[in-house]
Amino acid sequence: MAAQGSGGAYEISTRMTALLGWGGTVGYTDSFAWDQAADTYVLDPEMAAQLRASNPQAFRNVLGRCLEAHGRGMWQPNEEMIDKLRKMYGEMDDELEGVK
């Protein structure tokens, strides 16, 4: 899906939003799905770079959904992971807003 450029990045982003909605609806709190999503779309440097280049807004949404899942108690990563995600989210927000 990521190879599909901007549209593929958008689809990945919407699936992260759906995962969050589904988890909230059914009370899903097993970290497995979020661990894999973060590992695949955020922590893999090549994938993150591809998503970021293809659709920066979608990549920011992926980061935001991971942080939201943690905030809602659906995902329990370590504090180092949360700090990294917050930093990445801030960088993406600055990039999209033109802040240097």
Helix-strand makeup class: mainly alpha
Total number of strands = 0
Query: What is Rg?
Result: 13 Å
Count helical runs.
Answer: 5
Quote the average pLDDT: 92
* Helicity range: over 70%
Largest sheet: none
Tell me the strand percentage band: under 5%
Q: Terminal Cα separation, in Å?
A: 31 Å
H/E order of the elements?
HHHHH
Cα shape: globular
Q: Uncertain segments of ≥5 residues (pLDDT<50)?
A: none
Describe the model.
The protein is mainly α. It has helices at residues 6-26, 32-43, 45-54, 56-71, 79-97. The protein starts with 5 loop residues before the first helix and ends with a helix. The model has no long low-confidence stretch (mean pLDDT 92).
List the helices and strands and how they pair.
Layout: H1 6-26, H2 32-43, H3 45-54, H4 56-71, H5 79-97
